[in-house]
Design goal:
Layout lengths: L4 E8 L3 E8 L5 E4 L4 H11 L5 E3 L5 H4 L2 H8 L2 E5 L11 E3 L4 E4 L2 E7 L8 E5 L4 E5 L15 H12 L6 E4 L4 H11 L4 H15 L7 E2 H7 L8 H6 L7 H13 L2
Length: about 260
């Protein structure tokens, strides 16, 4: 049997994305993170689905706030990062990089992506080629490095970068337009970036989301995925430097942009 996964995308809070992932073979449905109970409940009603699982990526309040309400209402199983179990209430299953999580007949590979938070994880569904990256990887950007350090964050991003180009990425927030402005400021001659920035402007003008996005497109356009490109090293006066040092410079540049 070919397992069909349906991903429902909706807005939550101010600029969060909400995602429902539905395994059509069994009817099991997971929310990726729990930003807003009302938004998730409405999405479930629109689809006629019942919530069976909650997959959590990291401990920030805008990703976990709705866990208690949703768990109480639906009896959902809550899966989350082992490294942040002390910061997230109501977790039932603890996972870390290298683990596999199932949703009915659909399997997700878990990757550690420290940086935004130390225990941040992402969920990759390899058959349908879906990557739920939360705040580890955005379109044309990455999450602010609140807890981690540049080296491990860069190494984790390289692992994600190695996934197939046709992987569809579903991130945690609609930050793409501001990310595009920064990226163009440090990499103005990048044709792939220019094309993506124009596409983003059109999508936002039409009131449409900029996700999901193709990982291959982002590999060519996102400066944070190109910290080992000599051109970006030269931009920061870091020719020949370790890519992690260049990544740190890009992150600092975005923080101050």
């Amino acid at each position: 049997m070919v397992v069909t996964v349906i991903v429902d995308v909706f807005g939550a809070r101010d600029d969060n994305f909400g995602y429902l992932v539905h395994d059509s073979a069994t009817g099991r449905t997971a929310t990726i993170d729990a930003p807003d109970a009302a938004a998730i409940r409405n999405a479930l009603l629109q689809r006629g689905w019942d919530l069976s699982d909650i997959f959590i990526t990291h401990h920030h309040i805008d990703h976990v706030e709705a866990i208690p309400e949703l768990k109480a209402e639906f009896g959902a199983r809550v899966v989350g990062p082992r490294a942040e179990a002390d910061k997230i209430a109501d977790l039932d299953v603890l996972v870390a990089g290298g683990d596999t999580v199932t949703l009915g007949e659909t399997s997700f590979d878990v990757y550690d992506t420290p940086g935004h938070t130390l225990g941040h994880i992402v969920f990759h569904e390899p058959v349908g080629k879906h990557l739920f990256s939360a705040d580890a990887l955005f379109s044309l950007g990455v999450g602010r490095m609140f807890e981690g350090t540049p080296g491990p964050m860069w190494e984790a991003l390289k692992v994600l970068r190695a996934l197939p180009d046709d992987t569809l990425v579903y991130c945690g927030h609609e930050y793409t337009a501001s990310n595009a402005k920064f990226a163009l400021s440090i990499d103005p001659d990048n044709a792939a970036l220019q094309q993506r920035a124009a596409e983003v402007a059109q999508l936002r003008a039409a009131g449409r989301p900029t996700i999901p996005f193709a990982l291959g497109q982002d590999k060519a356009a996102n400066p944070f995925l190109r910290a080992d490109d000599p051109a970006l090293a030269r931009h920061y006066g870091l020719a020949g430097a370790d890519p992690a040092e260049v990544f740190a410079a890009i992150r600092k540049g975005k923080d101050n942009f």
